[in-house]
Amino acid sequence: MNKLVELASKQFQSAFGYQASNIVQAPARVNLIGEHTDYNDGFVLPCAINFSTVVAASKRSDGVIRTLAVNFEGEIDEFSLDASFSFQSLRMWPNYIRGVVAAIQQSEGQQGDKLLGGADLVVAGNIPQGAGLSSSASLEVAICLSLKNLYGLSINETEIAQISQKAENEFVGCNCGIMDQLIAVLGKRNNAMLIDCRTLQATPVAIPAGTRIVIINSNKKRGLVDSAYNERRTQCEAAAQYFGVNALRDVSLDELTIASTQLDPLVFRRARHVITENQRTLQAAEALRAGDISKMAVLMAASHESMRRDFEITVPEIDYLVDIIQDTLGEVGGVRMTGGGFGGCVVALAPKESVNEIISCVESSYARVTGLKESILVCNASDGASAISND
Ligand code: GLA
User: Fold this and answer.
1) For residue 29, which of 54, 53, 46 has the smallest C-alpha distance?
2) Cα–Cα 20 to 30 A to 320, which of 12, 152, 228, 368?
């Protein structure tokens, strides 16, 4: 992270000719269990990880927001707040910044009025993109926190997450839930967070000492992610509507089973994933709290199977990684796909003594069997977004 901070401030100085007054960071996340439950008002158990987006910033006085993206070859996006900036850029990355600014402008209490001076921003990050580790949520939250600190906006942590989610929903076009943005704000060192996505209450659950979080990126390019994601969400909403409730959170497995012959079979399977995944997530929080990694392993395996069979969001490369890692770990650790799906990463939770075995089992066969080269990240559960310097 220190390197990123240095990079962002240096780039700021050389591109804009003066020093940034304010630097913030927001982390990536990995979800241990509770997939596609957030937008069903359910439970998730993610942790923030030690990869992040750093934003260096200073106020301007002419109503312009100018952003330089280090990871996009130093490209610059510039728009004026007094014109109608609510247009989307044809390039993808600027829309995350524009979306956050638009959401701040629309937020209660006219927070946006305070932004009228504008800002210079430099963004640098080390989160693998498109890997299901929430590089976008990290970017949105970092921008939002940066603008909050620059202009003294009175928005709390939950509101930062909600503004960032709105940017993604309305500007980027992914109808995502609140998990990624909330954990980027609320993450706690050495802890996962059990989040109730209805009340937005988050409870820390300590990662047992001696347990490691290992992330294996399949490097399988994710295609049509947003449309497939939005389709899953619509199917869940159709199931909730059938039961006359706001969200699948309010439907029990018994109620679903009784309705099985009435429901469209596909909608039934989607709902079964969500309802059982909510149960597994609550049980997983208990197991983790008790340091029972073998129980976690059983729950993670069931979660993966449910994503593969009922929610149909895994791909063969990911299933292969889960199979070989589970074979290697036996009962001492768990593994499952993490994130929205259709490629991306698997997460393993294992005793530190097993980390090398995981790495060598993946290195010895994944590339040979799939033709893709994995990348492996051994992570720490980290704190959420924070100011690094604030003049
Ligand atoms: C993506 C979304 C989240 C969540 C996960 C699946 O990461 O942004 O809101 O729905 O997928 O659990």
Assistant:
1) 46
2) 228
Is residue 104 located within the same domain as residue 22? yes
Instruction: Please report whether residue 389 resides in a domain.
Output: no
CB atoms within 10 A of CB 90: 7
Atom of ligand 1 nearest to the CA of 179: 9
Catalytic residue selected from 62, 180, 254, 383: 180
Give distance in angstroms: CA of 340 to centre of ligand 1: 5
Checking DSSP bridges between strand 64-69 and strand 118-125, what pairing results, if any? parallel
Active site residue 180: yes
pLDDT band at 109 (very low <50, low <70, confident <90, very high): low
Question: Mind listing the pLDDT tens digit for each residue in 245-278?
Answer: 999 999 999 999 999 999 999 999 999 999 999 9
Which residue range is the domain that position 170 belongs to? Answer: 2-205
DSSP state of 32: S
Closest C-alpha to ligand 1, atom 9: 177
Reported as a single tens digit per residue, the pLDDT across 147-188 is 999 999 999 999 999 999 999 998 888 889 999 999 999 999
Answer yes or no: do 192 and 243 share one domain: no
The verdict on residue 386 lying in a domain is no
- Ligand 1 center to 324 CA (angstroms): 25
Say if residues 356 and 212 touch (Cβ distance below 8 Å).
no
Q: Which residues contact 318 (CB under 8 A, 6 or more apart)?
A: 218, 220, 337, 343, 344, 346
pTM above 0.85, yes or no: yes
Per-residue pLDDT at 65: 95
388 lies in a domain? no
Domain membership of residue 172 (yes or no) is yes
CATH of the domain at 268: 3.30.70.890
